[in-house]
Specification:
By secondary structure, the chain is an all-alpha fold. About 80% of the residues lie in helices and about 0% in strands. The longest helix has 28 residues.
Amino acid sequence: MNVNDIHSIEDYSPQTLRELIGRVEKSSTFEHMIYRESELDEVWRLLDSDILAAERKGSNAPELANLVALRKLIVEAHDFIGNDSNTVDARDRLLKAVELV
């Protein structure tokens, strides 16, 4: 788990989010924060895509609400990293996100 690189994000599975949590916990430099923001951007993009697809196919309200809640946690984690380099609160949001997946 190298925090000095941007890691490819293919999904927002619990495993992917746990790996991201591990990198967030070890991140300490400005560059690390940029890398984690980029990874969170990709999770956010994947969720946006799935939310749109769920809306188009008329998914049930609980499924859609879960995706929206998950995206909200990812956005909050992103903002904690980007605005304050606050890895503690970012990690907490990501741990909550794992519970929703």
